[in-house]
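Ticket #328: bound-state structure for NAI.
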Amino acid sequence: STTPVNVTVTGAAGQIGYALLFRIASGAMLGPDTPVRLRLLEIPQAVKAAEGTAMELDDCAFPLLDGVDIFDDATAAFDGVNVALLVGARPRGPGMERGDLLAANGGIFGPQGAAINAGAADDVRVLVVGNPANTNALIAASSAPDVPTERFTAMMRLDHNRALAQLAQKTGTGVADVTNVTIWGNHSAKQYPDVAHATIGGRPAPEVIGDDAWVTDTFIPTVAKRGAAIIDARGASSAASAANAAIDHVRDWVLGTPAGEWTSVGMVSDGSYGVPEGLISGFPAVSTGGAWEIVQGLSVSETAQAGIDVSVGELTEERDAVKELGLI
Ligand code: NAI
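RESOLUTION: The complex was predicted; output attached.
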């Protein structure tokens, strides 16, 4: 039998955690042949709730689940970790300024990055889900100088999947017919969802959609503001869809993206597409099972570049703010 993969999930007692852990344990993330050991990290007040979730994980009798350990200490939780899902974050409270939010999250993601640096396995891969995801990933990466920055990623996959669903519905196709959408920039309302290189049923998406105004006036804002629409309808933020996107992101990273298809990944910029080097931004990316690679050489229209630049401008501001706070 194979050695279990150590998967650490932070914020394990939260709503995304509850939607995520059972799917990891069932094999949806790493495949049907890979046993997993779950390591749950929570704050002390939520450890009891995490223990309840662990009881339910036992009660599922998942054949691939090697065991569940619960921690309230980051150093212990990340010891030997192969896949780290950083979900727990500090939400924006009433009257909280952006600087306060960034500082509060720096107090979480800085120490977690240091704990990953200290104890993670050599092949560690990190996905940051907790918002502001891109900048939290940057903070964690800069607190882990011995781990290649490429191993720290931020989740753009939920935005990507939202885009696939909108395009399939608009064109009366299935989501599996839609490929090569890109979500550029920040996981925020200023993201730039891009269909220029997408295909639907093998044909250029703009041609199949046949309605450029819909793309600009409906598609882009619907995808970018979907998180708020979910909160409005559900009275709580996206959880099962966020967990599903995290599963998709790690699965494609570890097992590879389908031939000829890319997905959207928040990853460190090498300077491509005018994104300043070192920022963690949404890019089109592929994996063959090792590292994420940015898809190079795509033509970008002036309009698209302007959309990318706006979103990247926001990332630059966030980076400047955390630099000023001494968090990176
Ligand atoms: P939640 O509030 O239900 O759960 C968060 C959990 O994190 C809580 O159980 C809390 O105790 C825990 N936590 C807080 N600080 C922690 C720390 N230092 N170490 C370990 N655990 C800690 O929140 P939910 O709905 O599960 O969302 C989690 C995060 O994911 C939020 O920041 C949310 O904004 C973000 N999110 C990101 C998305 C994306 O596409 N990137 C999509 C949806 C949500």
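RESOLUTION NOTES: The CA atoms of residues 230 and 238 lie 6 Å apart.
TICKET STATUS: resolved
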